[in-house]
Amino acid sequence: MTIYDVSKQSGVSIATVSRVINGNANVRPKTRKKVLDVIAKSGYTPNAFARGLGLNTMRTIGILCADSSDIYLAKAVYYIEEYLRKNNYNSVLACTGYDIDNKKKSLDMLMSQHVDGVVMIGSNFVGQSVEDNQYILDAAKSTPVMLLNADVDSPNIYCTLCDDLKAMQDTVGLFLDKGIQDVLYLYNSRSYSGLKKLAGCQSAYLMRSLPIDTKYQRLFEGARDDVDGVVKFLESIKAEGLKFSAIVASDDILASASAKFAIKNGMKIPDDIQIVGYNNSIISVCCEPELTSVENRLEKMCAQLVKTLISALDGEEPPQKVVFSGELIQRASTRL
Length: 336
Description:
Layout: H1 3-10, H2 14-21, H3 29-42, H4 48-55, E1 60-65, H5 71-86, E2 90-95, H6 100-112, E3 117-121, H7 134-139, E4 145-148, E5 157-162, H8 164-177, E6 183-187, H9 192-207, E7 217-219, H10 227-239, E8 246-249, H11 252-264, E9 274-278, H12 283-286, E10 292-295, H13 298-313, E11 321-324, E12 327-329
Parallel strand pairs: 1-2, 1-3, 3-4, 4-5, 5-11, 6-7, 6-8, 8-9, 9-10
Antiparallel strand pairs: 10-12
Helix pairs in contact: 1-2, 1-3, 5-13, 8-9, 10-11
């Protein structure tokens, strides 16, 4: 059943059927009823793409997420889709992986579906150079692009992020101010956010005129959820003879793996070693002892991102960048 069949059976023009479908008030009640009766009997469902062309909007937002199994990214997808539904927008989700070519192909796919806007979840979509980000700049020429926890300064690109640098700077600084300098910083990503957190760790030392010892900043290059791999990685660092009385991790999975390492090696938490995670996810309270973690305001960021997007689609001038502050949530794994 097509719009042409509805037109033929109801005895009105295709344009009139289109006006009825799109809720146009400029249709006589008798004619509207005739068209709606045919639609009801036939079970005709208007094609969303065709309706979008007529209305100049698909009321659909494209969402890009590198890895839906990542607890942080999955939670962000949940929040964003929830707030979009509240604003009567649908969403199309594409899980891209971390390969740049797949990211570009997924973005092209969403653009070909004439989505009203694009949301990129996570800082891994943003590179360090203009060339790395050209595919984002190109998309922004025709539709608003929203970046969650990343920053690109260009027209029609809107950024909502947590100040990861300041949050990590403050967290490491708490240890340094208590005279604890042997803090092992453990991270697993060189993304935009990952590098900001690393810079925050380093700046905590610089602000206090303390030397930065790169032996205490370690990148775990294994799979993001390889907990046992992280444990072995920490054991290899310990075997080098490097002593550390605190571990600050760039996410809660690394922190929970650090707790597993400590328990396996006979260390008491927080007496022998203190541990801090990041994201304040459910992992932080599932761990024993419960983990101190940085709350990065994910839900509030997602709500703000959708608010900014709706504002941009309505032709308003929303802020190009909104930055949230992180907050350290202290639990049993630290004594700060």
